[in-house]
Amino acid sequence: MTFEKIDSKDIPHDTSEICLFVATRNNESIMPEFFRHYKNLGVDRFFVIDNMSVDGTVKFLLDQENTHVFRTDEPYRIKNQNWNRWANRLKKHTMGNWCVIVDSDEFLIYPYCETHTLKEFTSYLDKEGSTSVRGRLIDMYSSLPVKDAILKKGQNIFKVLSYFDYPCKKKNSPRMRAIKQTKKRKRGRRGRARMRGIRLNKTPLFKCTPNTIIKSGHHSIWHQKASQTVSCGILHFKYTAEYIFHLIIESKRQVYYGKASIKKKMLEVFRKNINFSFFCLKSKKYEDSKQLIDLGIIKMEGEYGH
């Protein structure tokens, strides 16, 4: 198995930079929006691990400034470890830096990110003595059936997948709702699904030190002092039309949690109802970070310094 850097750019060590870690595979359609979002937030340098993409993902990545591309043929999940083991190998390049760590379909939203950069946000965290922030995963979806939620190259993903559940709870997450609906049709009230492996909290932002250990697909990061006054949202943009093809492929590859058991259950949902939609009475259209604060999904108890 290999793990190698495939770009020709030097990696400088500047602790003032905001760095980002992400793993990707065949995400050509979402990558332009991903980079646009994080550059707008103020990410300076990207460390991308490509897991053997066969579309145009790698070409796009190699064309991006301040982006370092590492390619590996190792499985996404191996010996109960997720892709975070790759990020742990790259920490040596970011000692002393604030780092974002997300999946390629996850867009970080912190309080007032529309008007305050990541450098301003991390300066606030430095002043209060925190070294990480916890985040709430928020599944985003369309008002249309999933098969009709088509993301075209260059299109604003916030306009394609505009809605989320409120309240957003683990036991009633969009995936849980979908699977419960299928199981109920199949076996009645006894068909309640056990959704092991679904965790709605992550640590998307941390300050890298020699003691930092990224665990459980960045759901937790060890040896960090998490902020008690602020939390973030992580908008999860996975439910486009491409998601159905993703389920077919990954159900066969079986490299995700429990041999892709959750993905297999989701594939069953679409096989029973190709017009399935997550849109429902409790769907709420996303507006901005202040909306998430007002709803109590994320918090900001302090204030930015001026």
Structure, described:
The chain has 306 residues and is an alpha/beta fold. α7 (242-253) packs across α8 (257-272). The strands form three sheets. It has a nine-stranded mixed sheet, sandwiched between helices. Strands 8-13 form a two-stranded antiparallel sheet. Strands 10-11 form a two-stranded antiparallel sheet. The relative contact order is 0.17. It has helices at 31-41, 57-62, 84-90, 118-128, 157-160, 174-187, 242-253, 257-272, 289-294; strands at 3-5, 18-24, 45-50, 67-72, 98-103, 106-109, 132-139, 163-165, 201-207, 213-215, 220-222, 232-236, 283-285. It has one domain. Helix content is 28%, strand content 21%. The protein has nine helices and 13 strands. α1 (31-41) links the parallel β2 (18-24) and β3 (45-50).
Short overview:
The protein is an alpha/beta fold.
The chain-level structural class is alpha/beta
Ranges with pLDDT <50 over ≥5 residues? 185-198
CA(first)-CA(last) distance: 50 Å
Rg, Å, rounded: 19 Å
User: What is the approximate shape?
Assistant: globular
How many β-strand runs?
Answer: 13
Helices and strands, in N-to-C order? EEHEHEHEEHEHEHEEEEHHEH
Percent helix: 25-40%
Largest sheet: 9 strands, mixed
Integer average pLDDT: 88
* Structural domain count: 1
Number of helices: 9
Percent range for β-strand residues: 15-25%
Order of strands across the biggest sheet? 1-4-3-2-5-9-7-12-6
